[in-house]
Amino acid sequence: MELIWEGVMPAVTTKFTDGDQLDLTSFKKNIRAQLDAGVNGIILGGTLGEASTLTSEEKETLIVKTLEFTKGAVPVIINIGEQSTEGAVAVAQRAEEIGAHGLMLLPPMRYKATDHETTVYFQEIARSTSLPIMIYNNPVDYKIEVTLDMFEILLKESNIKAVKESTRDISNVTRIKNRFGDRLKILCGVDTLALESIVAGADGWVAGLVAAYPAETVAIYELVKAGEIEEALRIYRWFMPLLELDISPQLVQNIKLAEVATGLGTENVRPPRLPLQGEERKRVLTIIEKAMLCRPRLPEYKNL
């Protein structure tokens, strides 16, 4: 399957049972909702997917089951955030063996690598697989920035195709386009900057709140691409208090509470994460409840 780095690609949550096992029934329901809404890909095992707590076997199960659930409708992409280059290469090769369509790569974890070390890390993974790759550029959370000069080197690897742009600097979309044109596809990785990034020329949106609100997310993307900015803004303004739940260390707990509200998931998280408590739980629930009371009517966005 050809992987086109465009459109809405949910970074889906991983569902767990009350007994802390993979909840594949709930997971399948959510994947079906994403497909029904018109997403363009599924990304597994990111931060929102609680990747750091998943075993290798669980990650493989998620890939295999997502391929089964999607039945070729959209590409399935697995995130790689391992502790070593050797470990990352092994995950990349195994993902290709079992049928994943693409990779999202974080920089080296638990070590603030230099620009050269980070570049070599990405190069070695890229050279170990034929799968197309999206680099996750998030210096705010991961303390390593992939600069344009680094991308100049990295784009010599033909399978490095895209960037998940999470620098929080919307002008970076323009800098990337000016320097690389369409050679490097740009997917916004920050929910609260998505509409602005798409207007500026981003090709897609790696979304978080899409896990609970798939149709609203895809509608915003499609409306902006069709030039229907006012209609997109109407939905985006309603969405913003919810989207802000994504820019928090507790984004997983927040978004899983939203999934409960829309019937697309459960609140179960894997320790050391725990469900929200006290005043913070009340605050998040209030945001969700207010949004649910005035959930917008969507236009026929699929045929724009």
Describe the structure.
This is Dihydrodipicolinate synthase family protein. It comes from Salinimicrobium marinum. Pyruvate binds at residue 206. It holds the Pfam family DHDPS. It is a single chain. The chain has helices spanning 24-37, 56-70, 85-97, 115-127, 139-142, 148-154, 171-180, 194-200, 214-225, 229-243, 251-262, 278-293; strands spanning 7-10, 42-44, 76-80, 102-105, 133-137, 160-165, 185-188, 204-207. With 304 residues, it is an alpha/beta fold. The protein has an eight-stranded parallel β-sheet with strand order 1-8-7-6-5-4-3-2. It has one domain (7-303): Aldolase class I (TIM Barrel), CATH 3.20.20.70. It contains twelve helices and eight strands.
Key terms:
304 residues; alpha/beta; TIM Barrel; eight-stranded parallel beta sheet; 12 helices; 45% helix; globular; Dihydrodipicolinate synthase family protein; Aldolase_TIM; DapA-like; lyase; 4-hydroxy-tetrahydrodipicolinate synthase activity
